[in-house]
Structure formats: C-alpha cells, structure tokens
C-alpha cells in the first residue's frame, strides 16, 4: 500500500512539474491546452515540490507526512479547478491521496492520544519503599501462592511498580474465523495505583488494518477498536461490566509481575493444594479469578467469569493458559499464553501471545 501510494504521488507530482515547464516555455505540455501564466506556473512548481516532499517523508516513514500531503492536495485541486477541462481527472488522484492523508492523520492522532494517556499513567504511579520482599512477608498467603512467588524469584527483590512489555499476537476476531491474524501490541502497567494501557495493531488482510486500545485506570475500563484508526468498530466505556472486565484482566496479568499479588487491593484464599482464588477490589470495582499452578509453583491457568463487552447479558468463562515459562530480567514468568472464551457454541480460543520484551520499574515512559 505504501509503495503504491508513493508511486501515485510521484507520477502526480511530475505532472505538476510539466505545468511549470509549460508556463516558462521550457517544454510543451499538450495535456493542458490552455495557456499557463508564469504566476500559475510557480504554483504548479510549488505543488510539485510539496508532492516531492510527501514522497520523501513517506520513504523515511515520517509520522508527519500527512501534513504536507494535505497542503499538496489542496493546492493541486485549486489548479485543477482553474484548468478543469484538461485536468479534471487529476481529482481522482487527489481523492485517493486525501483519503490516505485522513487515515494517516487519524493514526497519528490515535497514537498521540495513547502517548498522553501513558504519560498520565506514569505521573500517577507511586514508587513503593525499597524494602525487599522476604519469605516472612508472604507467610499469610495460601501455600501454593507462596510457592509460586518463591518459584518466580521475587524473594529478596524490591516490589515491581511499573512495567512495560511488547507482545507478538495471533488473533481470531470471531468464533467462526479459520485463519489467525498476526498483530503486535504494547502494554504499560502501574501497580500502585493498579492501571494498564494496552494497544494493538493488526491486519485482517492486505488492506484492512485494525488498531485497538484497552485501558484500566481509577477503576474505570475502556475497550476501543478502530478500522484504519478512523472508524470505530467497538467503543465500550462508562459501563460497570467493562470496569469489572478490565479489572479482571489486570488481575490475570499480574503473573507477569508477581509481586503485585501482595498489593492491599488483592485478597487470597486457598481452593486446594494447587489453586487459589484472588479477589481484587479497587475504587468501587470488584472482581475475582482462580489461579492454578503445578507442583513446582509454575503458573498454569487463570479462570474467571467475565463480561465480553458492555452489551453482554451474562458473563462467560474466560481462561488464560500458560504454554511456556521463562526467566526474564530475573523474574520467572509465563512468556507464551492462550486466552479462550467458553461460549454456548463451544470454546473460542481467540488469542495466542508471546512476550517479546519486558522491563520493570521504569522511572519514566520509554520513548516511542
């Protein structure tokens, strides 16, 4: 798509250059039968320069190419209106470029919104004391949770308070989808207060690109999905169901930063030798989940009853299974997981993820 757009802009720009050459008698341009004054010739040259700039910015993958693209289309279309009988078909090229400009601006705006949200997330984060976690500090937890925390290697370390991670994803956007869509995601967490901001970028095919952003902050949840960063496919917020669902997601994902299990907003109770129930309550929102472990204390599964969205009539069983565990930055965590919904029509495994990078206790938000 980018290559095709660059070629189109290049051809369109060169046509404008010929308008300048005709105005100054340097070359004949029979495609335009009307005479072109030198004043308008300079405008044709300006338009060529603007389109050339757009090409360069696209080639270097600048996030700001849409700005010069918009100016180029406006000036180009003014010229086309002035020489309509000969140049009217140039409007088609301008419309294609304009649509691309609008999509690029929407993507730029969407990313900027996420950046501002994450800055706020980090500004609100509170750094705990440097006191390390000891075996004595976890003795009141269920024995299997103690074993998990010890096995995770958080004993002797300070609590984790900020997290940044990247993921490679495979997704099925509907239960009847056969093929997996590939995607990438970034996620930021703060532990005190509990919050996260997650965004995804994926393609349904060679043309349609979908972006999404989920967040949980101050006990409020939001789930947003947009086509081309422009057209809202889903926008769930201001809902008790969404608030609880995003809180439960935070609860499930503490397996990537196990010391969060010691937070005062999470209470534990034993279920059996290898499982425990966690209840999380924050800012008036409450949710539960069951954690399952193996005999060594490795996390194996999280299960809860969770609303899919704000329109869900009842919660469905939502399960996250760890398929691979590794040590990252001195902490043993699940690095590959699968998430599934249990629906009336059967099990829908909609997500497979791999943790590509994870960083703990950042003092500020990473660039980019």
Describe the structure.
The chain is an alpha+beta fold and 368 residues long. The chain has two domains: 2-103, no CATH class; 132-360, outer membrane lipoprotein receptor (LolB), chain A. Helix content is 33%, strand content 34%. The protein contains seven helices and 13 strands. The protein has a 13-stranded antiparallel beta sheet with strand order 6-5-4-3-2-1-13-12-11-10-9-8-7. β4 (209-217) and β5 form a beta hairpin.
- Unreliable spans are none
Question: Which CATH C-level class of the largest domain is it?
Answer: Mainly Beta
Number of domains: 2
Alpha-carbon distance between the termini? Answer: 23 Å
Total of DSSP H or I helical runs spanning 4+ residues: 7
Give the integer mean of the pLDDT values: 92
Number of strands: 13
DSSP helix fraction: 25-40%
The SSE order reads HHHHHHEEEEEEHEEEEEEE
CATH architecture of the largest domain: Clam
């Amino acid at each position: 798509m980018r290559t095709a757009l660059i070629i189109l802009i290049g051809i369109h720009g060169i046509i404008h250059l010929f308008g300048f050459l005709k105005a100054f008698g340097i070359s004949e341009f029979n495609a335009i039968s009307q005479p072109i004054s030198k004043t308008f010739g300079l405008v044709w040259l300006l338009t060529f320069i603007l389109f050339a700039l757009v090409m360069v910015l696209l080639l270097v993958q600048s996030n700001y190419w849409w700005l010069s693209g918009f100016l180029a289309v406006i000036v180009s279309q003014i010229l086309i209106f002035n020489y309509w009988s000969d140049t009217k078909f140039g409007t088609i090229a301008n419309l294609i470029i304009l649509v691309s400009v609008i999509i690029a601006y929407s993507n730029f705006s969407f990313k900027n919104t996420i950046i501002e949200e994450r800055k706020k997330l980090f500004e609100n984060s509170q750094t705990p004391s440097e006191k390390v976690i000891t075996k004595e500090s976890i003795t009141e937890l269920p024995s299997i949770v103690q074993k998990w925390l010890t096995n995770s290697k958080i004993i002797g370390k300070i609590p984790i308070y900020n997290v940044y991670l990247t993921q490679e994803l495979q997704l099925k956007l509907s239960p009847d989808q056969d093929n997996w869509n590939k995607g990438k995601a970034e996620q930021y967490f703060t532990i005190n207060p509990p919050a996260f901001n997650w965004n995804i970028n994926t393609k349904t095919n060679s043309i349609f690109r979908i972006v999404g952003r989920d967040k949980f902050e101050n006990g409020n949840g939001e789930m947003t999905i947009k086509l081309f960063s422009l057209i809202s496919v889903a926008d769930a917020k201001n809902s008790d169901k969404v608030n609880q669902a995003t809180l439960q997601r935070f609860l499930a994902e503490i397996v990537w930063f196990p010391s969060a299990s010691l937070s005062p907003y999470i209470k534990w109770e034993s279920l059996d030798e290898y499982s425990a129930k966690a209840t999380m309550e924050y800012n008036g929102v409450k949710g539960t989940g069951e954690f399952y472990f193996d005999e060594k204390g490795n996390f194996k599964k999280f299960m809860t009853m969770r609303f899919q969205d704000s329109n869900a009539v009842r919660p469905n069983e939502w399960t996250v299974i760890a398929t691979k565990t590794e040590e990252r930055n001195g902490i043993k965590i699940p690095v590959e997981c699968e998430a599934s919904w249990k629906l009336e029509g059967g099990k829908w495994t909609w997500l497979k993820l791999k943790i590509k990078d994870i960083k703990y206790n950042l003092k500020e938000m990473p660039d980019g």
